[in-house]
Design a protein that fits this description.
Blueprint (H helix, E strand, L loop, with lengths): L1 E9 L6 H13 L4 E3 L4 E4 L2 H16 L4 E9 L7 H14 L1
Antiparallel strand pairs: 1-3, 1-4, 2-3
Pfam families: Thiamine_BP (PF01910)
Protein name: Thiamine-binding protein domain-containing protein
GO cellular component, one term: cytosol
Length: 97
């Protein structure tokens, strides 16, 4: 499965990069395939391991912010591995054709 999620601290002002970095650090240290862009962090793996990483990333922000907003989208496809790469490669192949 692939989960794309964003964690936003609330009540800490406009500059939230430091807080978001705490969440991304948890994801990167998990060892699971992941990618971060301007809006979301995506992580790929089995249900329990991915959801554990999301929970720990949220907890890292929650430890420093009075309120946290989470947006999460999941692509659940049993048997598919390396979906983050293959899905993008498919789109790029269609764009180049």
């Amino acid at each position: 499965m692939i989960v794309a999620f964003s964690v936003t601290p609330l009540g800490v002002g406009e500059d939230v990069g430091e807080y978001v970095a705490d969440a991304v650090r948890v994801v990167r240290e998990s060892g699971l395939p992941n990618r971060t862009d301007a809006m979301f962090t995506s992580v790929e793996g089995e249900w329990d391991e991915v959801m554990d990483v999301v929970k720990r990333a949220v907890a890292a922000v929650e430890a420093r912010a009075p309120r946290v907003s989470v947006v999460l989208k999941a692509d659940i496809r049993p048997g598919v591995t390396d979906g983050m790469t293959s899905k993008v490669e498919t789109v790029e192949r269609h764009l180049s054709g």
